[in-house]
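--- STAGE predict ---
source: upstream dedup step, 1 unique chain passed
mode: sequence only
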Amino acid sequence: MNQYKANIKITLRKGILDVQGKAVEHALHSIDFKSLTNVRIGKYVELIVEAENPQKAKEIVRSASEKLIANPIIEDFDITIYE
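--- STAGE serialize ---
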């Protein structure tokens, strides 16, 4: 079995109101960063996965993301696998 590092970037789906992003955007504007707009806040997860190959590692991480790590109803996620 090989070990792979997985990075998972999780963001709210388009069309879902990002309350935290709006709060940060408002705060930025209040300290004169008015040129920064459409702020979206997400999550970043790193983990190590044991698998036979990178494709299998990505399948395992995708399954874990769909079942627990992300909320597939309101969130999208992108997985990157490193050796």
